[in-house]
């Protein structure tokens, strides 16, 4: 009896669907009789939630609600959960073109109250559109939402539309933190373009006062049936109530790991490697002479920066470790930081890939983020692999990450809020350090070229990505090499 | 001058070498920076609040992810010291002799904690006792400060009488303290025992007295959590884990894909489809699942064809996880074992020397698998009824987590094709039922070779962490100043009798009932 079997032989249940492998993502999906993909099976690694989620911030002004909203949105989008924030303050600025003073926020200002309520409803309407019509999965409703009445309105809205609600409240009474917040993000707000610092601060403090009297914080007893996290004193303490599902659990974990202590994150690639010089991708080669020079220069650069308690992380590939060795401080090796696995294309030149796998080469240009190398990985896989690294980066303070081109692009996309389309084409040249410093709601980037020559490994998307294209068209954007 | 690098032969980790000999590596673990000072986790709460349940589960999880952890249950020490438990009177706060004994037991346990963390390479110790008074906790804090240990409290607060009654029935009435009692009497006595503690109970106070401590308060079996001052990565992971576990009854089904064409040829890895018998198994699996009559079963597969084909036969929605893919055999993918032995004889031999740490060239190790599969475990904890259709090495990793197997045992766990393992959490562990679906298949299991001498432990071993079982067989605590305790061994027959549910337990670890925590 032959042990080699025919793949299409059926046994038993003749209704069993055949599988075909999606050529881009290399995912097996059931196909109907004519070989076309049938029902689309969920390819997400896990079902985050079965209905859209509305995250609602709660808290007095200058408690970090917008900071949290933006950061959370950035994180969720990076892990492929379509998320959008809706800041009611922006709606208010659309409506009331010119901000005069805190008087607008006085609880007895009926005109003001009416406008503010309208703005909240307009924002909720856009939330509904995003979650129901535009494929959104999470909406972050960023406003003070300090009264139970306002929150009840939101809960009713969510119930009507089949959204889950999760509250994120920020409670803080530390005057230093509040003052710092005001300086970081309020002074530069459109509301205060015509004021000087002192006036702006004074007005803003009065604005906070307007909310204080009617503030009803989330309560362990009265709100015991709601799902929420209360963040106290910028993360010193948390109260977590009734986490309903996976996405809420991930949100809580994320919020519990972020901090606002000033620090910098340094990202760079390993020094130029022997395979880099030959124009080959992947592999586990050592540093070239120039790569070694870079490592030395990096060591000097790090010394000169005088960084407080710097942690150094590398991948488990020789070239990053060799680079770290020259820096001369203890480092940790993460397998998760290894370069993207190019599968059957490991150690090939682009010219060879075009020759041997022209279809694959074209598919990759068509959708570089989702494209998975045969027996290898995609950028999408990389992001999933790197998520624990990001989580730990959030926990840490000063860190230098010595990694690889595709990996660095993924990390950078997280910090700079780049889309899946942009991510695979971010420029991360060899021998250049990117210093990221969180500031206000985002990240300041400084690019430091350590002035050691290296090959260029960046391949732009060619104009013609069609599978029928000529080899020359495919290879147009391949960088020079030996 | 930067040091030269050599690649460790088993783990394929690059480490700096001195004089051609690999020297001590710097933090070679491929994982996050774990807190360097050891941590003592201190449980807090009235009896029957799930402290021992959480202690054991957490310890199992931490060991599995590679952090050497051990539980120190003060009730066990007490049972050593006081051979026969008579009644709840022992726990009255005015029973001076008893109070003294209990204090000595706590100190003996702490002494062993210190030994474990300083002499035995332990990284986390779980101090499982009620620790309901400030005095007792202050004493532990002092102990921590003296020895440079971090302290993290886990308090369980619950006043739901149903939950408490259920706990008492699950783990208390069948405990050694009550082996001569009937259920009703045991329940009554235990309730009075709880009252003895309640009078002096000082819960953690986040607003005043305990505001600078690091702790998590678990309220009403996870409905609510209060988390205070997380200090480091390990505490953050512990909190995340505790927030994801639940006590809802449910079952976890683990099985491999049906027999594949590569299986028939004796080939490793690859992405082949099912053989005829494999398809037959898929059909049998569908029937089996239907017969189980489960509400809301989640089905998960890997992204490899053979596991998906198996799921397809079930005709229910399933989710594909790349994380559940079989171990990557790197350059050995799709070879038979004979071909591996021929072409890579050194690799072949190295793998047998240390199968857990061994990484295929350009591939993975079991240790890598654990890290890869951890999010799956976390999600399984969140879920209820789940069927996971995966692969040999992967199922071994998952099984090792549920059955608390060591790194040493994990790569040799027997997980034959066409067999479903049904895991049901019960008391402090997991009941396992192995159900063969009676469809023939090749055997893909390779035993640990006899002739392989255990070589000198690889240098990496010293600085890396080895998942250990939570319980050391038959190592009983010793208490100074009291009579020499007799080492009491619990025979398997006794286990069956003690079991509250009276089912045969195919448990991997021994002694779980004797260690049911009662302080």
TrEMBL record, chain A:
Catalytic residues identified in the record: 270, 339
GO biological process terms held by the UniProt record: fructose 2,6-bisphosphate metabolic process; fructose metabolic process
PROSITE patterns the record matches: PG_MUTASE (PS00175)
Top-level taxon of the source organism: Eukaryota
Pfam families in UniProt: 6PF2K, His_Phos_1
Keywords, alphabetical: ATP-binding, Hydrolase, Kinase, Multifunctional enzyme, Nucleotide-binding, Phosphoprotein, Transferase
Residues of the 6-phosphofructo-2-kinase domain: 48-262
GO molecular function: 6-phosphofructo-2-kinase activity; ATP binding; hydrolase activity
InterPro entries found in the cross-reference section: 6Pfruct_kin, 6Phosfructo_kin, His_Pase_superF_clade-1, His_PPase_superfam, P-loop_NTPase, PG/BPGM_mutase_AS
Family: In the C-terminal section; belongs to the phosphoglycerate mutase family.
Name used for this protein in its record: 6-phosphofructo-2-kinase/fructose-2, 6-bisphosphatase 4a isoform 1
TrEMBL record, chain B:
Catalytic residues in the record: 257 (tele-phosphohistidine intermediate), 326 (proton donor/acceptor)
Region Disordered, residue ranges: 15-34
CDD domains documented for this protein: HP_PGM_like
InterPro entries registered for this protein in UniProt: 6Pfruct_kin, 6Phosfructo_kin, His_Pase_superF_clade-1, His_PPase_superfam, P-loop_NTPase, PG/BPGM_mutase_AS
Superkingdom as given in the UniProt entry: Eukaryota
Secretion signal, residue range per the UniProt entry: none
GO MF annotations in UniProt: 6-phosphofructo-2-kinase activity; ATP binding; hydrolase activity
Keywords tagged on the record: ATP-binding, Hydrolase, Kinase, Multifunctional enzyme, Nucleotide-binding, Phosphoprotein, Transferase
Domain 6-phosphofructo-2-kinase stretches: 34-249
Pfam families xref list: 6PF2K, His_Phos_1
Listed SMART domains: PGAM (SM00855)
Binding-site list for substrate: 256-263, 306
Protein name: 6-phosphofructo-2-kinase/fructose-2, 6-bisphosphatase 3 isoform X2
